[in-house]
Design brief:
The chain is mostly helical. Helix 1 runs antiparallel to helix 7, helix 2 runs parallel beside helix 4 and helix 6 packs across helix 7. Helix content is 78%, strand content 0%. It has 8 helices and no strands. It has one domain: ABC transporter involved in vitamin B12 uptake, BtuC, CATH 1.10.3470.10. The relative contact order is 0.16.
């Protein structure tokens, strides 16, 4: 398999974006699974999306700071709300997260109802445009993710539940605007889910699944001219299924009668 310079100039920056997303999402995804709040990223990402849509509908530039502040503000508000509901209604947290996602998703639809580009904007929010992320954003994104990783690995035991929710909100706010809602969820959940039976080097193996998934998915999407986000999601899912099958504990053979 070989690529021309034009294809490489598209794939390499997109792969770099994927690596940055995986760097933060895989360890946070492990925490999400252990807490049993799998759909929190969908809810927080969708709430951040409402902030983006609202700011854009008020006339602010899509790539301007006002939109980024609106997205972050909405995500942090959503994180604080879900942190409160987890303390108040711990037995119903997952359904509450699901309802929050549905409310935020339908709010975006309502806000975009009168926008002639509404369907396109919704598609970008869900599918993302990983192949077309401007490379000038990558150093800033890398710095933000490095700070998030530093806080997570250095202060994880001290930031508490609220700190986790706020850190998660900041991470997802950045990621959903880079790769879209589908890839955010897949990057966060599939690698940790595939390695949940692994005890040794689980984090490294989860990263490996994500890296190979992005590399193969991006290459395949360019070769076959298919949407990159969905192809990467399917590639991650297939690799995750194989990894899980290989690592699942073997059932004890039935005792002979």
């Amino acid at each position: 398999m070989s690529f021309n310079l034009t294809e490489l100039s598209i794939i390499v920056p997109a792969f770099a974006v994927g690596l940055l997303v995986l760097a933060t999402h895989v360890p946070l995804g492990m925490q999400v699974l252990s807490r049993g709040i799998v759909f929190i990223d969908l809810a927080i990402a969708q709430i951040a999306g409402v902030g983006v849509v609202l700011a854009a509908s008020l006339g602010f530039e899509t790539e301007g700071w006002a939109v980024q502040i609106a997205a972050l503000g909405a995500a942090l508000a959503g994180a604080l709300l879900l942190n409160w509901t987890e303390k108040k209604y711990p037995d119903a947290q997952e359904p509450i997260i699901g309802v929050s996602f549905i409310l935020a998703a339908t709010a975006s639809v309502i806000l975009l109802a009168g926008n002639v580009h509404g369907n396109e904007n919704l598609r970008d929010l869900l599918v993302g445009q990983i192949l077309w992320v401007p490379t000038r954003y990558l150093p800033l994104v890398a710095a933000v993710y490095a700070l998030i990783l530093g806080v997570w690995f250095g202060l994880r035991e001290r930031i508490g539940q609220m700190g986790f929710y706020l850190l998660f909100a900041c991470t997802v706010t950045v990621s959903v605007q880079l790769v879209g809602l589908y890839l955010v969820f897949a990057s966060l959940i599939i690698p940790p889910l595939a390695t949940r039976h692994i005890r040794r080097y689980r984090l490294a193996k989860s990263y490996a699944i994500g890296v190979v998934g992005y590399a193969v998915g991006l290459a395949g999407s360019v070769i076959f001219d298919l949407p990159s986000g969905p192809v990467v999601v399917w590639t991650l899912a297939l690799l995750g299924s194989v990894a899980h099958a290989m690592s699942a504990p073997k059932k004890a053979s039935a005792a002979s009668s």
